[in-house]
Amino acid sequence: MEQVVIIFLCLAILLYFLLGGADFGAGIIELFTSEKNRSKTRNTMYHAIGPVWEANHMWLIIAIVILFVGFPLIYTTMSVHLHIPLAIMLIGIIARGTAFVFRHYDAVKDNMQGIYNQVFVYSSFITPLFLGIIAGSVLSGQIDLNANNFADAYIFSWLNWFSISVGLFTTALCGFLAAIYLIGECKTVEDKKRFIKKAEYMNIAAVVFGAMVFFSAAMENVPLMNWVIYNKVGLTAVSLASLSLVLLWYLLLKGKTKILRLLAGFQVTMILVAISYAHFPNFIRLKGGEVISLYTTIGPDKTIQSLGWALVLGSLLILPFLGYLFYKFQQKEE
Fold it and tell me: Where are the transmembrane segments (predicted)?
């Protein structure tokens, strides 16, 4: 049953990035849209994510519950040493959701609408930035369990070039996903061209920040090159991600948009596989070279059995209805 729990953990993290990340990316696209086109972008985005955006946080909740119940040492280490970026990320999620609701459903249309818009777009940028910083921090080897001062224990565990680079790379990927997803929601050729241009910019940003990730990893002794390039699975995943990107842009130039979302999701999945496969089942790299592994920190057998069955039965109940929800709201308006 421990394998079932770990599979659900990996799937929850992946789906939150693919679905929740695209939602954050929609706000990032709006942030970098000119004032004259923001209302069009906002309307397109709302029709795309408005009905289902809240459901995507389910995957984050599942991942947190799995870590809390099944891997308490990992949960404790992250929540203690990374409590500052975690708090900022959670505040961003709350602020973004609140602003999203009020700017659409506020009974009074006044100057507050501008504030809601600002809160939404900036929290959409900040949240994936710190989500990526947290992800980079668990791989950076900067978390020091023996730190004897506040800065070493709670600041430099995440405030380093590698973690920040991963945060920026994550933000660019979210923007890229959103732009690709939103192309299929466009009703005019003009709107489609605008989102294609946004996808190009976000793609360039992802390449630049991706290079920054490798450069900062070399500076701070993170063996990212060994994980990605000098590992057969990692190299294969990177190659497939690159090929899928080439195919994506080829189909886009040909005007074929039906499978763009699948290709974009596949590309990001391969990137995550390339980064995570080589050091699995290690979850956190600590300062000094030690690691915290999923297998060595897993909870008692009875706990894992109960958690595993709860995840299996819960998925059988929830996933069909979630799929139906997505299906209904993706149907084109007559």
Answer: 6-32, 53-74, 80-102, 114-138, 158-183, 204-223, 229-252, 259-280, 307-327
Q: How much is the CA Rg of the chain, to the nearest whole Å? A: 20
pLDDT at 35: 76
The CA distance from 31 to 122, in Å, is 7
Q: What are the tens digits of pLDDT across the range 102-122?
A: 877 766 677 787 888 899 899
Angle at 215 between CA 75 and CA 283, to 5 degrees: 20
What sign does the dihedral 321-14-75-281 (CA atoms) show? positive
CB–CB of 196/183 below 8 Å?
A: yes
- Residue 286 has what pLDDT? 93
Query: Of 23-37, 57-71, 247-261, which one has max mean pLDDT?
Result: 57-71
Q: Sort strands 282-285 and 291-293 into parallel, antiparallel or unpaired.
A: antiparallel
